Amino acid sequence: MKIIKLFVIAILTIGFVACKKEVKKEVTKETETIDSEPIGIISTDELNSLSNSIQLVDVRTPDEYASGYIKNAINIDIIGDDFIEGMVLLNRAKPVYVYCVKGVRSQKAAETLLDAGFSQVYNYKGGFGEWTKGGNTVSVD
């Protein structure tokens, strides 16, 4: 009888410890989500439906921008030395939408904007390539 009691106590102890570890993992995961940077992702349809008065930033090079861009986008090259200076053109209180060719450089730009104190930053992951592939209007100077 003593062996059965010890066995039951051991099983309950192992079960309690295992549950405690699982709860701890969930809390850690939740905290990481809260602490992560809030870069929003915007789709082609969402971008297309927004008004013309949004802050839309093309972070490609000036040559890429000159070959075509999304209407009302301003060009602030993320690779160039003047990206930080170019952020002065933007209103920190309003959302900022960024894009490049595919979404890699715009992700970097979004992170830089968040680090600079912008709170509402959206990355158009599909980028200019996705925009043109969908047959959307392209502006050229």
Short description:
With 141 residues, the protein is an alpha/beta fold. It has six helices and five strands. It has a five-stranded parallel sheet with strand order 1-5-4-2-3, covered by helices on one side.
Primary descriptors:
single chain; 141 residues; alpha/beta; Oxidized Rhodanese, domain 1; 2 domains; 5-stranded parallel beta sheet; 5 strands; 48% helix
What does this structure look like?
By secondary structure, the chain is α/β, with parallel strands linked by helices. It has two domains: 1-36; 39-133, Rhodanese-like domain (Oxidized Rhodanese, domain 1), CATH 3.40.250.10. The protein is built from six helices and five strands.
Low-confidence stretches: 15-35
Q: Which structural class do the helices and strands define?
A: alpha/beta
Inertia-based shape? globular
CATH class of the largest domain reads Alpha Beta
Give me the CATH fold name of the largest domain: Oxidized Rhodanese, domain 1
Q: Evaluate the radius of gyration.
A: 24 Å
Q: Note the gap between the termini.
A: 89 Å
Number of E strands: 5
Which strand order spans the largest sheet, edge to edge or round the barrel?
1-5-4-2-3
The number of helical segments is 6
Mean pLDDT: 80
Tally of individual domains: 2
Give a short account of the largest sheet.
5 strands, parallel
SSE blueprint:
Elements: H1 2-35, E1 39-41, H2 44-49, E2 55-58, H3 62-66, E3 74-75, H4 83-86, E4 96-99, H5 104-115, E5 121-123, H6 127-133
Parallel strand pairs: 1-5, 2-3, 2-4, 4-5
